Amino acid sequence: MSDANPRIDALLQSNDIVLFMKGSALFPQCGFSQRAVAILDHLGVPFETVDVLQDPEIRQGIKDYSDWPTVPQLYVKGEFVGGSDIMMEMFQAGELQQLLADKEIAKAS
Amino acid sequence: MAAEEIESLIRQGIPDAYVEITDLAGDGDHYEARVVAESFRGQPRVKQHQRVYQALGGRMGNELHALKLSTAAPE
Description:
By secondary structure, chain A is an alpha+beta fold.
């Protein structure tokens, strides 16, 4: 277990939707992260992003946290949802919208 | 990483898998993989993807930077 875990726990507890990504929402540094941001923007929900390029401890820690080797990673209410491919598949099937509704996450006003 | 190597690693890790690799950029670094396996049936997507990543044995995110992955059980 990595020292990053308490920090990751804290991030997930204080934000309903967290996207760990490369770059920022405005300036994604990788095509997969860009796609993940585009999906969340389209859904119109508020979300927090964490730029792993600025934080080596989180960059490694988040991979161990979910046993998932790549970034971006989406978490909703503390639960790991998946990477950008899973986000896209779920979005196209309407499952991501359903998940957010089930978790009672409102759109940004 | 060569496409054949990715395919053979996935087949070793998931013996019932049908694997289709597409080279997206022609640079040996950006691939798309479609993996269909009967043993995926009933497993959540996250678990299916994790099994593919496990088959790749730590190469994902290292030697293999970009793999667009989709998984399914046979129709």
